[in-house]
C-alpha cells in the first residue's frame, strides 16, 4: 500500500503529474547522468508527449529538470526563457518509437566541458519515471534510490571487485543490473543503493583496472 | 503494527480503539516511513499551506491556461457566492475547487490530491469547513490524514489513475476522501466517515476521463467544483443519519470493476466522449496547429 504522502501529495507544478512533474524528473535525471551543466539539449518526444507537450508544458518541464529545478519549482513555467538566458540551446522533435511507453522522451545533452549523454526514459504515472536507456545501454532506473553506475570492460571478476568495495563501505545494493553491447567489449552496471555512496566509494570503483568510469546519481 | 486493507478495517480499528480515523492513519505512516510523528504532521502542514495558497491565488486568478481553454471562472463564481441557489458555503467551496484547478492549469503550485486533475476537491472542502464550522488548521491537518487513509484504500483496491479507472478514480476518489474528512470534522463517528465516502463515490461511479485536447482542463477544472459540492452533500446526508445501502468497500469494488469495464477510449486517451466532439476537435486544431491532420 502507498503511503499518506503518495495520496495527499506531492507538492508539484501543474497541470499534469505525468506530463509535467514526471517530465521535470526525467530532465533532472538526464542532467544528473550528464554530471555537469548542459549547453545543448536535443529532445525527441514520443506518443502522448509528442501530441500534447505544448499544452501540458512538458517542454518547459523537461528543460526545467535539465536546468536542475525540482518538480515543485515555480520557475518551471519560465524554464525556456531561463535556459536561453543561461545560453543553453534546446530543440524538440516529435518521433515515433517502436514499443515505447506513450510518455517517452529521448534526451541528448552536451555539457559545458563537452561531455555528452543520451538518456531515454518514460513518465509512467503519478510523477514516477523509468529511465530505460543510457548511452545505448539498456537500464532500468526510477530515481527513487541513489545509483552507482560503472562503465567497464566485460571481463570476469569486475562485478565482484566493485561489489566488494561497496561491501567494505557497508553500502547495501537494493537492485542491480548489468548490460553490454558486445561480449568482451564495454559493459554497464547499474546498482540502486539504500544510501548515497560517499565520493571515496566512487573513486575506488574508478580505480578498479577494468573500470573505465564510475559515477553516482543521487535519488531525485 | 497497524495494517488496514479496507475501509471497514480502518474504521473498525478506530471504533475499537476509540480513536479518530486520522490517528490510525498517522500511526501507520509513522511506522512505515520510520519518521517521527512530528515530522509526519509537519509534512501535512506543509501540504495544507500549499493548498491554501493555491485557493487564495485561484479565486483571484484571471490568467488563461496555455491552451486558452480555462481561467477566470473561479473568480466569477466567488463573486457570485451570495446570490446563487446553493448559498454561500457551497458556492465558496465550488469556487475554491475551480480556483485550485485553474492554478494547476496555469502551471502554478498545487498538491496532487490524489492526482493533479482532482487537486481542488479535498482542499476546497476543508477550506470551506474552516469557514463554516470554525474548525482549526490543526484539526484540518489531521482530517487530511483521514482523507489520505481513504485514498490509500481506494488506490489499493481500485485505482486513483484516470488512465486506469476513468475520472471516477480521480474525482470520485477525491470526493470520497473529502466527504470522509468533512464528516470527521463535523464530529461524525469513524463508521460515518466510511458511510459518507460510500455515498460520495456511488454518485460518481462510471464517470469517464475524456479530456479535450488531452489537457487537464475541460471538463476537469469545472468538475472539481461540482465534485466538492457533492462531497459536502454526502457529508451532510451522513450527519443527518442517512445510510448507504451498499457498504463502502463494496462500492470501491464496484468502482474497480467499472473502471476495468470502461473502454480505453474513455480512460484519458482523448479518443472518445467530450474529446471527440466537433467543438473539441476545433479546439484541438487551434491548440496544436501542426497536428491538424489528427
Automatic annotation (TrEMBL), chain A:
It comes from the Bacteria. Its cofactor is [4Fe-4S] cluster. GO terms for biological process: gluconeogenesis. Signal peptide: none annotated. The keyword Repeat does not apply. GO terms for molecular function: 4 iron, 4 sulfur cluster binding; L-serine ammonia-lyase activity; metal ion binding. Pfam families: ACT_AHAS_ss, SDH_beta. CDD domains: ACT_LSD. It catalyses: L-serine = pyruvate + NH4(+). Residues 147-219 form the ACT domain. Pathway: Carbohydrate biosynthesis; gluconeogenesis. Keywords: 4Fe-4S, Gluconeogenesis, Iron, Iron-sulfur, Lyase, Metal-binding. InterPro entries: ACT-like_dom_sf (IPR045865), ACT_dom (IPR002912), AHAS_small-like_ACT (IPR054480), ASB_dom_sf (IPR029009), Fe-S_L-Ser (IPR051318), Fe-S_L-Ser_bsu (IPR004643), Ser_deHydtase_bsu (IPR005131). NCBIfam families: sda_beta (TIGR00719). Belongs to the iron-sulfur dependent L-serine dehydratase family. PANTHER family: L-SERINE DEHYDRATASE, L-SERINE DEHYDRATASE, BETA CHAIN-RELATED. This is L-serine deaminase. It comes from Selenomonas montiformis.
From TrEMBL, chain B:
Its EC number is 4.3.1.17. Keywords: 4Fe-4S, Gluconeogenesis, Iron, Iron-sulfur, Lyase, Metal-binding. The keyword 4Fe-4S applies. Its cofactor is [4Fe-4S] cluster. It catalyses: L-serine = pyruvate + NH4(+). One of its GO terms (biological process) is gluconeogenesis. Pathway: Carbohydrate biosynthesis; gluconeogenesis. Pfam families: SDH_alpha (PF03313). One of its GO terms (molecular function) is metal ion binding. InterPro entries: Fe-S_L-Ser (IPR051318), Ser_deHydtase-like_asu (IPR005130), Ser_deHydtase_asu (IPR004642). Residues 16-275 form the Serine dehydratase-like alpha subunit domain. Belongs to the iron-sulfur dependent L-serine dehydratase family. NCBIfam families: sda_alpha (TIGR00718). This is L-serine dehydratase.
Amino acid at each position: 500500500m502507498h503511503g499518506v504522502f503518495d495520496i495527499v501529495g506531492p507538492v508539484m507544478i501543474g497541470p499534469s503529474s505525468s506530463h509535467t512533474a514526471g517530465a521535470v524528473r526525467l530532465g533532472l535525471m538526464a542532467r544528473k547522468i550528464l554530471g555537469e551543466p548542459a549547453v545543448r539539449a536535443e529532445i525527441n518526444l514520443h506518443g502522448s508527449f509528442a501530441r500534447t507537450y505544448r499544452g501540458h508544458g512538458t517542454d518547459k518541464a523537461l528543460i526545467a529538470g535539465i536546468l536542475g529545478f525540482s518538480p515543485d519549482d515555480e520557475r518551471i513555467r519560465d524554464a525556456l526563457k531561463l535556459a536561453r538566458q543561461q545560453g543553453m540551446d534546446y530543440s524538440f522533435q516529435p518521433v515515433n518509437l517502436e514499443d515505447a511507453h506513450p510518455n517517452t522522451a529521448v534526451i541528448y545533452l552536451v555539457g559545458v566541458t563537452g561531455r555528452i549523454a543520451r538518456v531515454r526514459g518514460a513518465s509512467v504515472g503519478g510523477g514516477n519515471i523509468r529511465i530505460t536507456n543510457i548511452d545505448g545501454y539498456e537500464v532500468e532506473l526510477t530515481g527513487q534510490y541513489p545509483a552507482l553506475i560503472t562503465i567497464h570492460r566485460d571481463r570476469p571478476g569486475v562485478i565482484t571487485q566493485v561489489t566488494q568495495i561497496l561491501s567494505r563501505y557497508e553500502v547495501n545494493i537494493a537492485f542491480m543490473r548489468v548490460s553490454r553491447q558486445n561480449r568482451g567489449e564495454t559493459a554497464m552496471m547499474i546498482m540502486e543503493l539504500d544510501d548515497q555512496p560517499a565520493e571515496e566509494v566512487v573513486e575506488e570503483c574508478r580505480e578498479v583496472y577494468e573500470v573505465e568510469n564510475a559515477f553516482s546519481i543521487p535519488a531525485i | 503494527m497497524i495494517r488496514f486493507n479496507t475501509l471497514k478495517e480502518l474504521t473498525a480499528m478506530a471504533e475499537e480503539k476509540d480513536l479518530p480515523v486520522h490517528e490510525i492513519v498517522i500511526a501507520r505512516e509513522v511506522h512505515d516511513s520510520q519518521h517521527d510523528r512530528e515530522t509526519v504532521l509537519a509534512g501535512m502542514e506543509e501540504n495544507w499551506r500549499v493548498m491554501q495558497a493555491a485557493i487564495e491565488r485561484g479565486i483571484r486568478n484571471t490568467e488563461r491556461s496555455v491552451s486558452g481553454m480555462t481561467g477566470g471562472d473561479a473568480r466569477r463564481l466567488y463573486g457570485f457566492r451570495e446570490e446563487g441557489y446553493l448559498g454561500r458555503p457551497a458556492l465558496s467551496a465550488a469556487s475554491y475547487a475551480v480556483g485550485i484547478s485553474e492554478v494547476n492549469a496555469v502551471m502554478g503550485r498545487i498538491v496532487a490530491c490524489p492526482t493533479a486533475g482532482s487537486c481542488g476537491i479535498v482542499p476546497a472542502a476543508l477550506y470551506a469547513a474552516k469557514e463554516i464550522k470554525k474548525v482549526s488548521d490543526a484539526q484540518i491537518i489531521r482530517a487530511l490524514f483521514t482523507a489520505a487513509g481513504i485514498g490509500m484504500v481506494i488506490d489499493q483496491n481500485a485505482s486513483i489513475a484516470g488512465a486506469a479507472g476513468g475520472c471516477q478514480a480521480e474525482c470520485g476518489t477525491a470526493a470520497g476522501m473529502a466527504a470522509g474528512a468533512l464528516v470527521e470534522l463535523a464530529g461524525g463517528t469513524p463508521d460515518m466517515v466510511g458511510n459518507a465516502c460510500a455515498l460520495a463515490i456511488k454518485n460518481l461511479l462510471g464517470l469517464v476521463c475524456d479530456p479535450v485536447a488531452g489537457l487537464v482542463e475541460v471538463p476537469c477544472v469545472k468538475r472539481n467544483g461540482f465534485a466538492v459540492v457533492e462531497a459536502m452533500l454526502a457529508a451532510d446526508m451522513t450527519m443527518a443519519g442517512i445510510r448507504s445501502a451498499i457498504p463502502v468497500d463494496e462500492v470501491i469494488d464496484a468502482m474497480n470493476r467499472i473502471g476495468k469495464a470502461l473502454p480505453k477510449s474513455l480512460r484519458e486517451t482523448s479518443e472518445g466522449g467530450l474529446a471527440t466532439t466537433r467543438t473539441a476537435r476545433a479546439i484541438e486544431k487551434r491548440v496544436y496547429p501542426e497536428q491538424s491532420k489528427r
